[in-house]
């Protein structure tokens, strides 16, 4: 009795030379002896696909995924066959199973979007966008030269639908407020969105200012802000001693401290931090009260004076985004390298709590020397860095508020817009 591997090898050899009929015959002979061999089932299915027999191929693939539910390629091929058989719901289900196992398969995700489009255009938009961004991250679908000829028209259609769909979705987030307050009142937000979508020019006239996400035009460019713009400074600064006492208890207990930066992905520590000693000695840690809009109730309860002081501050409130409030701990000898923040729509305030000598903040090339108990607010969309060249720990409390020159209707529109953009990006698998 010949082995299953022999028949698989024969079938693959025939497929490689374009002889799908002989490949199917070889696979069929093997399946007569080894009816449940997954490799034989797979080459038989591939042969049937090559012979333009999607129904028979689908039956073979259904048997295969029933026996091997983690066979991602088989699920994706099954989805393609069911799509050809004009069964978009079943095709979409199979494609989702395959993509859960093989999320980088951009052509399959394109097929999923095409299946979803007639019945659920919003879900299709997410999958179109994810397919294109996945492919482009791999260096494909950037132009005709990087797109397979059989996919070019479909990819161009996907890009057109993405442009139209994102425009419709994102502008719908601010449309009610435009109707309520008038288009002129929200013109800065509208122009920011147009620039974000790439349908109008955007960007700061100041080369030092380059937000990585959203730039609001016509806000007076200023790396640092005048104290008079923040009437809540006084109460917060008066609470400095009580806040610092709670910080000292946090430092003694060490519970709840965590690295501010996440290096679980491709980013490396030395992309963001440097040290006067060894890079391993560089540390930027945090004790969060809020992060990405999520409160840390245990930390707020552990620091009641801090919580009371923060309750008097008009923090930025954006679901899943803001506020970001924390004790920021910079270890001796550590430099936070120059970087840009995400947007100029909100500003960052530091309340310095423990500041040794040789510690400073630099925004837009302008150095600021922290003073304990005295707030400083800056636009972090400007290139900025911070350092602790001392031999002691430096701690400031960081919080964010809306840009003081934005009007209430603008901040409301920005909140709604960022929540919609963020929700869409999360659905599309983007951070």
Describe this structure in words.
The protein has 431 residues and is α+β, with helices and mostly antiparallel strands. Among the domains are: 4-102, Serine Threonine Protein Phosphatase 5, Tetratricopeptide repeat, CATH 1.25.40.10; 227-405, B-lactam Antibiotic, Isopenicillin N Synthase, Chain (Jelly Rolls, Sandwich). Helix content is 48%, strand content 14%. The protein has 16 helices and twelve strands. Strands 1, 3, 4, 5, 7, 10 and 12 form a seven-stranded antiparallel beta sheet that branches. A hairpin with a 2-residue loop joins β3 and β4 (294-295). α1 runs parallel beside α3 (38-50), α7 runs antiparallel to α8 (121-137) and α8 packs across α9. The longest helix is centred in the middle third of the chain and has 30 residues, at 152-181. It is elongated. The two termini are 54 Å apart. The mean pLDDT is 95.
Give descriptors for this structure.
single chain, 431 residues, alpha+beta, Serine Threonine Protein Phosphatase 5, Tetratricopeptide repeat, Jelly Rolls, seven-stranded antiparallel sheet, five-stranded antiparallel sheet
Layout of SSEs?
Elements: H1 4-16, H2 20-33, H3 38-50, H4 54-67, H5 72-84, H6 88-101, H7 106-116, H8 121-137, H9 152-181, H10 187-197, H11 233-238, H12 240-253, E1 258-259, H13 269-272, E2 273-275, E3 284-291, E4 294-295, H14 297-302, H15 304-310, E5 325-330, E6 334-339, E7 346-354, E8 359-363, E9 366-368, E10 376-378, E11 384-388, E12 394-402, H16 408-427
Antiparallel strand pairs: 1-3, 2-6, 3-4, 3-5, 5-12, 6-11, 7-10, 7-12, 8-9, 8-11
Helix pairs in contact: 1-2, 1-3, 2-3, 3-4, 4-5, 5-6, 5-7, 6-7, 7-8, 8-9, 9-16
């Amino acid at each position: 009795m010949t082995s299953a591997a022999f028949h698989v090898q024969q079938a693959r050899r025939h497929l490689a030379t374009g002889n799908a009929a002989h490949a199917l015959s070889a696979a069929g002979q093997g399946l007569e002896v080894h009816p449940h061999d997954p490799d034989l089932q797979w080459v038989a299915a591939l042969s049937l696909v090559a012979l333009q027999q999607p129904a028979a191929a689908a039956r073979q693939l259904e048997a295969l995924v029933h026996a091997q539910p983690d066979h991602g390629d088989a699920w994706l091929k099954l989805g393609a066959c069911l799509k050809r058989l004009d069964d978009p719901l079943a095709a979409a289900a199979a494609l989702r199973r395959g993509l859960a196992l093989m999320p980088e398969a951009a052509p399959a995700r394109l097929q999923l979007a095409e299946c979803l489009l007639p019945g659920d255009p919003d879900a299709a938009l997410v999958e179109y966008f994810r397919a294109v961004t996945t492919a482009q991250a791999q260096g494909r679908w950037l132009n005709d030269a990087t797109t397979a000829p059989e996919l070019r028209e479909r990819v161009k259609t996907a890009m057109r639908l993405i442009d139209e769909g994102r425009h419709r979705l994102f502008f719908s987030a601010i449309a009610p407020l435009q109707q309520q307050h008038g288009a002129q009142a929200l013109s800065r937000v509208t122009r920011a969105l147009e620039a974000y979508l790439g349908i109008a020019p955007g960007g700061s006239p100041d080369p030092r200012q380059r937000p990585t996400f959203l730039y609001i035009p016509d806000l007076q460019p200023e790396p640092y802000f005048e104290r008079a713009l923040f009437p809540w400074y006084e109460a917060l600064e008066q609470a400095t001693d009580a806040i610092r006492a709670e910080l000292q208890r946090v430092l003694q207990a060490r519970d709840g401290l965590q690295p501010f930066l996440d290096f679980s992905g491709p980013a490396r520590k030395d992309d963001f931090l440097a040290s006067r000693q060894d890079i391993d000695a560089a540390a930027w840690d945090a004790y969060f009260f809020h992060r990405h809009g999520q409160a840390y109730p245990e930390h707020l309860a552990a620091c009641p004076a801090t919580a009371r002081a923060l309750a008097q501050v008009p923090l930025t409130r954006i679901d899943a985004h803001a506020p970001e409030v924390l004790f920021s701990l910079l270890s001796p000898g550590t430099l936070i390298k120059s970087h840009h923040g995400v947007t100029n729509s909100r500003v960052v305030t530091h309340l310095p709590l423990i500041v040794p000598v040789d510690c400073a903040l630099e925004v837009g090339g302008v150095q600021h020397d922290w003073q304990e108990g005295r707030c400083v607010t800056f636009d972090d969309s400007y290139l900025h860095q911070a350092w602790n060249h001392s031999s002691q720990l430096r701690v400031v409390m960081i919080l964010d508020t809306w840009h003081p020159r934005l009007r209430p209707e603008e901040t409301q529109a920005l909140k709604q817009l960022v929540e919609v953009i963020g929700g869409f990006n999360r659905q599309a698998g983007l951070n």
